[in-house]
Amino acid sequence: MTVPFQVNDPRGIIEADRAHVWHHLSQHAPYLDTAVDPRIIVEGKGLKLWDITGKEHLDGVSGGVWTVNVGYGRARIADAVRDQLVKMNFFGGSLGSVPGAQFAERLIKKMPGLSRVFYANSGSEANEKAFKIVRQIAHRKGAKHKILYRDRDYHGTTIGCLSAGGQQERNAQYGPFAPGFVEVPHCLEYRKDELGLGHLSGEDFGVAAANLIKDVILREGPDTVGALCLEPVTAGGGVIPPPEGYWPRVQEICRKYDVLLHIDEVVCGIGRTGAWFGYQQYGVRPDIVTMAKGVASGYAAISCCVTTDAVFEMFRDDPSDPLNYFRDISTFGGCTAGPAAALENMAIIEEEDLLANVDAMSDRLMDNLRRLMEKHAAIGDVRGMGLFCGAELVADRKTREPLAEAQVQAVVKDCMAQGVIIGATNRSVPGRNNTLCFSPALIATADEIDHLTDAVDRALTRVL
């Protein structure tokens, strides 16, 4: 295929990268051998990517980290960002901006029951804001300072967010962590024996899994627990949709014990599950919602911490108190590129009816994965919601012994060699990094879904 771009001095770019760029989540030792080059992506269009050698790839993970929801090459988003930056690029968030006001209004219309948007520039930062809100309320209103988080959930890369991190290998070597964060059990029905709930299934299991959260609240003391932070669907911890009955019971527990419900939509938000937000699939009414990634599909940095009026009003109920406001700032939360891009991103999703496409392509992706499960004994479970699916690989279906991480990564590597990029849990949960992850852009077509799963079929055949 003809390469759709020209790069001056590609060898020089590769060597500059090798010498000076510190890549995320990467062991750089292989790059010391000049026979192994860092991979450099040069151009993208739709779901296709081309690297600096001219090789074409189908991106099955939306930019590697569940971000490019509307696909690559959206000139209208880039144009909107350019026009806005020329007019007014930045002022600290103590003052407002036109796109900031417009996007907040448009976003809130998608989130009944919530009313206020605090801008920042990453998912980690948005979650830090939420944690600080809870802590400041505790200082002003009482002792409810503890924040509960779930095993296998992930909320960000800062020390504060890692303190609320349920992925032990992501946390390793970064402690000591902030006090006052307490873990609750995961809700993966496929691994229900780990929870002592092996005798239950369906809604009975979901309610019982939620009640494990209640047990933690009672153990810690309801007068000390201020918030519960959960992903609507656990993402990097294994793509874990909650079981039936789980979310309604979680909300009941939070209301009973006066615990703020903070839902981390950094991955699931803005269409990934087939609704604007994952929590809306379950009829939940949260107090705080955080989001990033798909908010602008990676065309600009933006994240949001969104709250109810009830939470917002706690920070202005006593104007005579000089400390009674949220004393926080995000420098680049004041950059106008983020909301300008987010406005166009949301318009594209609406105009192209991409939520409906997610529902249709979700059915195709799950059907394809189930057929692969019938063919390959190494697939122990398939699960997901919307264009966010996982296939858990096992060494033995009967015992459900997880497949070794090295073999799982070999499947990913084989797909990459075929020109198809998929994801997998890696270096996250000890002994449980065995789930292949699929999250193509919301614009994916049936042919692209088939291309994706056909590559997995070939990889499983060759590797296992």
UniProtKB/TrEMBL annotation:
<dbReference type="InterPro" id="IPR005814">
    <property type="entry name" value="Aminotrans_3"/>
</dbReference>
<dbReference type="InterPro" id="IPR015424">
    <property type="entry name" value="PyrdxlP-dep_Trfase"/>
</dbReference>
<keyword id="KW-0663">Pyridoxal phosphate</keyword>
<dbReference type="InterPro" id="IPR015421">
    <property type="entry name" value="PyrdxlP-dep_Trfase_major"/>
</dbReference>
<dbReference type="InterPro" id="IPR015422">
    <property type="entry name" value="PyrdxlP-dep_Trfase_small"/>
</dbReference>
<protein>
    <submittedName>
        <fullName>Tpa</fullName>
    </submittedName>
</protein>
<dbReference type="GO" id="GO:0008483">
    <property type="term" value="F:transaminase activity"/>
</dbReference>
<dbReference type="GO" id="GO:0030170">
    <property type="term" value="F:pyridoxal phosphate binding"/>
</dbReference>
<dbReference type="Pfam" id="PF00202">
    <property type="entry name" value="Aminotran_3"/>
</dbReference>
<dbReference type="InterPro" id="IPR049704">
    <property type="entry name" value="Aminotrans_3_PPA_site"/>
</dbReference>
<comment type="similarity">
    <text>Belongs to the class-III pyridoxal-phosphate-dependent aminotransferase family.</text>
</comment>
